[in-house]
């Protein structure tokens, strides 16, 4: 993954013969960013000294002044991007500037001299050159050429050659898949196997572009043209495919339609700009701002198509084309301002690799066949995926002998055949499960019996406890009765004041028995209480035989 800001360059168009130069200076610092200073002279004609700013400074990756030739521009701007695209990253180069500032000259080139070839033909030449040199991969190259005018897309590579107007060209529409990837319906992808074929396609597109343009609608200044080179590469025998694309974009003129104060006197910001460029500006502003979650890509077709190039998976470069004559100084300044904002945007280019499923299947099938062949070679036997009935019966026999063999060192040898080994394991598992069954049943039965007997013992215990409690109650009652009897006997003794040997004996025996029966209920006291109860009068509620 490569994360970097959009690289922004400036190119100053040579002045025309009758043009008056604006005041500007270029400071190309080799080590850091270059700077461009534009001076706006004070308007003395106004008759008073105003405080308007005079000097405007802008930073660029590099500035190409009037004398810079096409090859230098290509080497510095396009070649590094083309190299990334060859390595599997997406790339975009777009030219932004007012009409007549040299966008088309920079992107496509001038027709007069061969040396005026622009970025597209030079890039095609460079890419095919590199592809030819690299014999380690298989490359496929396609090109497409899209023109967007008034929010409508047109396929400039329509091979019918019948188009005389833009609207006769096939219309291209945008489709978005669930993953929010943009697909262009009706845009033809023409294969180009060499530089010549690709250049012919570029020529076809440019011809369609020119034919469709009429002086009345000036389509070229209001439309955007996107020439795209699609490269896919694959190492022989590998299922991994790298796909990358390079967009070379010639944008519509950035001039503001309604201007006040032409001629560099009063600088006013735009009143109106080509609508889709306005949307591009909104996207750039949103991307440059931190913490913006919504980026309005969908507002125009151009921003939708360039979505990945702006704030996405792409190495993007912008060329600000400047027409530096005095009349256009304000437009040049607004182009530079736009460029400064673009320079803040960070993109993350990732390697576009994918696995081709059909290639993967072919590869795996081949590998399986090779392994099968190897197996035949080693075992000397051809194998099918299933075991035959005969083989299965043989295995059953082997397992049986193995299980019956009491020798602890006995082995089950089925040979180095996974199918047979698996079968044996399954068979043994089944046997084990079956043999476990009776044991399980017994265990279950035993458990239920144990539960039943436990229940019975519990009930018995409960009954005995109840009985014991009942006995205790009876003893308590008897003890109370005895106490009362004793008291009464003592009272009688005092009253009579006479003692007889028989009554003393009775009293003594009563005392002895009372003391004994007052101790806590135990098996011995229970016995004595019973003996005693038989000798005294029994109350009605104790009449039941206690056993
Ligand atoms: P744009 O596409 O921005 O409207 P063009 O590329 O058509 O502008 O340029 C307008 C004119 O200026 C064309 O005739 C073109 O050949 C010429 N021109 C632009 N840039 C240069 C340059 N760097 N060197 C020579 N001529 C140029
Ligand atoms: Mg142009």
TrEMBL record:
Keywords linked to the UniProt accession: ATP-binding, Coiled coil, Cytoplasm, Cytoskeleton, Microtubule, Motor protein, Nucleotide-binding
Q: Where is this region: Disordered?
A: 517-547
Q: Which GO terms describe its cellular component?
A: microtubule
* Any GO molecular function: microtubule binding
| Biological process (GO), any one | microtubule-based movement
Keyword rRNA-binding among UniProt keywords = no
Q: Does the keyword Cytoplasm apply?
A: yes
Which ranges carry the Kinesin motor domain?
A: 5-345
- Pfam families for this protein: Kinesin (PF00225)
Recorded hits in InterPro entries, A to Z, give: Kinesin-like_fam, Kinesin_motor_CS, Kinesin_motor_dom, Kinesin_motor_dom_sf, P-loop_NTPase
Domain of life of the source: Eukaryota
Q: Which residues form a coiled coil?
A: 447-481
Q: Where in the cell is it found?
A: Cytoplasm, Cytoskeleton
Which residues are ATP-binding? 97-104
The entry sums up its family as follows: Belongs to the TRAFAC class myosin-kinesin ATPase superfamily. Kinesin family.
For this protein, the record's PANTHER family field holds: CENTROMERE PROTEIN E (PTHR47968), KINESIN MOTOR DOMAIN-CONTAINING PROTEIN (PTHR47968:SF67)
- Name of the featured protein: Kinesin-like protein
What organism is the protein native to?
Answer: Patagioenas fasciata monilis
The top of its lineage is:
Eukaryota, Metazoa, Chordata, Craniata, Vertebrata
């Amino acid at each position: 993954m490569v994360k970097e800001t959009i690289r922004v360059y400036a190119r100053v168009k040579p002045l025309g013969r009758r043009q008056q130069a604006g005041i500007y200076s270029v400071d190309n610092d080799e080590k850091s960013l270059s700077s461009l200073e534009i001076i706006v002279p004070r308007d003395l004609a106004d008759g008073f000294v105003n405080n308007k700013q005079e000097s405007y400074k802008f930073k660029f990756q590099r500035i190409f002044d009037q004398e810079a030739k096409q090859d230098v521009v290509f080497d510095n701007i396009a070649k590094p991007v083309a190299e990334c695209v060859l390595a599997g990253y997406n790339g975009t180069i777009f030219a932004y500037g007012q009409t007549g500032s040299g966008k088309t000259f920079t992107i496509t080139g001038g027709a007069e001299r061969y040396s005026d070839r622009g970025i597209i033909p030079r890039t095609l030449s460079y890419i095919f050159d590199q592809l030819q040199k690299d014999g380690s991969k298989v490359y496929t190259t396609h090109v497409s050429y899209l023109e967007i005018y008034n929010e409508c897309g047109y396929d400039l590579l329509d091979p019918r050659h019948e188009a005389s107007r833009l609207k006769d060209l096939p219309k291209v529409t945008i489709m978005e898949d669930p993953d929010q990837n943009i697909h262009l319906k009706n845009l033809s992808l023409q294969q180009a196997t060499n530089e010549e074929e690709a250049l012919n396609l570029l020529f076809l597109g440019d011809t369609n572009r020119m034919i469709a343009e009429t002086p009345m609608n000036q389509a070229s200044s209001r439309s955007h043209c996107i020439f795209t080179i699609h490269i896919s590469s694959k190492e022989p025998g590998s299922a991994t495919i790298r796909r990358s694309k390079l967009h070379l974009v010639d944008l519509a003129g950035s001039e503001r339609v309604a201007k006040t104060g032409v001629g560099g006197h009063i600088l006013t910001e735009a009143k109106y700009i080509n609508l889709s460029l306005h949307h591009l500006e909104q996207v750039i502003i949103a991307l440059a701002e931190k913490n913006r979650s919504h980026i309005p890509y969908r507002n125009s077709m151009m921003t939708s198509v360039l979505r990945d190039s702006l704030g996405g998976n792409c190495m993007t470069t912008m060329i600000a084309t400047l027409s530096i004559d005095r009349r256009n100084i304000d437009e040049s300044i607004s182009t530079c301002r736009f460029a400064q904002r673009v320079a803040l945007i960070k993109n993350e280019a990732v390697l576009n690799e994918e696995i081709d499923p059909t290639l993967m299947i072919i590869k795996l099938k081949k590998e399986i066949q090779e392994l099968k062949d190897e197996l035949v070679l080693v075992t000397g036997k051809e194998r099918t995926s299933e075991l035959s009935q005969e083989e299965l019966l043989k295995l059953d026999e082997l397992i049986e002998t193995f299980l019956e063999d009491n020798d602890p060192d006995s082995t089950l040898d089925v040979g180095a055949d996974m199918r047979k080994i698996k079968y044996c394991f399954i068979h043994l598992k089944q046997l084990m499960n079956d043999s476990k069954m009776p044991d399980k049943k017994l265990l279950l039965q035993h458990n239920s019996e144990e539960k039943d007997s436990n229940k019975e013992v519990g009930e018995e215990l409960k009954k005995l406890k109840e009985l014991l409690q009942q006995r205790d109650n009876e003893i308590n009652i008897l003890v109370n009765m005895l106490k009362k009897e004793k008291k009464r006997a003592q009272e009688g003794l005092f009253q009579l004041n006479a003692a007889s040997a028989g009554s003393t004996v009775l009293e003594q025996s009563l005392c002895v028995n009372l003391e004994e029966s007052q101790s806590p209920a135990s098996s011995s006291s229970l016995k004595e209480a019973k003996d005693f109860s038989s000798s005294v009068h029994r109350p009605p509620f104790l009449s039941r035989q206690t056993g």
